[in-house]
Write a structure and sequence with these properties.
The chain is an alpha+beta fold. The chain has helices at residues 25-68, 118-126, 128-141, 147-151, 182-191; strands at residues 73-78, 88-95, 101-110, 113-115, 154-156, 163-164, 169-176, 196-202, 208-211, 217-220. The strands form 2 sheets. Strands 3, 4, 6, 8, 9 and 10 form a 6-stranded antiparallel sheet that branches. The chain is rod-shaped.
Amino acid sequence: MSIKQPLTPPNKGTQPRQVKWRLSRSKMNSILALCAILISAASFYATYMQAKAAQEQVAAAERQLHAETWPWLQVSYSDYDLDAERARMSVKVTNSGTGPALIKSMRFEYQGNTYHSLKALLNHCCNLEAYKAALNEVQDDNQDINYMKQFGWYVTSNPQNALLADGNDLVLFSMDRSSFNGNLWEKISHIAHDIDVNTCYCSLLKQCYTVNKASEVKKVERCSI
């Protein structure tokens, strides 16, 4: 019969063995280098985000300034003055934008011909200068009567290099109808809707645009005069 030996209880004073990790110099240098890379990457990302935010702020400021200084020109025609309650032909260009417009050039096209002014077009199609000469002759013969007003004088303006503030308009041609100029008035009124107008203008920021009769705006590098 075998006799079992009693189990010896563990020594309560015995501590578990501690494993000591020792880093070599090369491993320590590698860890320090990796930390430096991570810190540099984080610093670069922070700098990138700050630069991106600054660019977005500049772009937003530029868009706001552009919106505040953007001119939009429109050419309109009317043949009746509601305020004066009379037949009055008027061709005008209006700045409906938010900033002044420097008009560089306007081109008027009719029946395949291009004119640099509305007055030149009307003189070619409708003998506007002959009407002017007839009025001047009548006025010179009798200074007591203002024939210019009674017979229906016309007013023209040159839009080249004109600075048009936002909300304002520039009258290109205007003439009241009278018994003396009825035929001429009707002739001009008949062709007015067939005249194509192309305008090139620039904003205060030197951003240039072209606009046609249909008010279609296109951005261009510069205006060729």
